[in-house]
Amino acid sequence: MATDWVKASVAADRALIGIVWPDGSILGDDALAVYLAAAKAGCVAYAPTLAEGADVPEEYRLAHIMHARNIFNAGNAASDGNGELSAGGYGITSYPLDWHVKQLLRPQRGEGAIW
To answer: How far apart are CA 31 and CA 71, in angstroms?
Structure first.
């Protein structure tokens, strides 16, 4: 288990970023660090608080990368209808702290209604 949040300067983290977010792996360390810092703030605010000195769960690390990717995509979506993220004049809106990220940070468990 990893002991910390994802960092742009750690080689193993860069490899994980390349798997989860291929476009993120082409960003320089400084640019990637900006997105990761913003994403970490959102994840920490939403996720249950970890005990002091506790390892960061892999689910949190995955959510961290996914949230950074979503922030990047939100800032780079074309609004003119001519970009990769739109077709026929309709743009796609991305939501940075989407339900996938939230589910990784605070899983909602279904309650059985059938006895």
So the answer is: 12
Long-range (24+ apart) CB contacts under 8 A made by 43-48 are 43/5, 43/67, 43/101, 43/105, 46/97, 46/101, 46/102, 46/105, 46/106, 47/105, 47/106, 48/105, 48/106
How far apart, in whole angstroms, are the C-alpha atoms of residue 55 and residue 4?
A: 6
- Please give the DSSP secondary-structure letter assigned to residue 46: H
H or E element in which residue 87 lies: strand 86-87
Is this structure's pTM higher than 0.85?
no
Going by C-alpha positions, the residue among 28, 114, 42 that lies closest to residue 71 is 42
Mean pLDDT by 10 residues, the chain (115 residues): 84 94 91 95 93 94 94 74 53 67 77 61
Please state at what angle helix 58-76 crosses helix 29-46, rounded to 10 degrees: 120
Give me 81's structure tokens.
């209808």
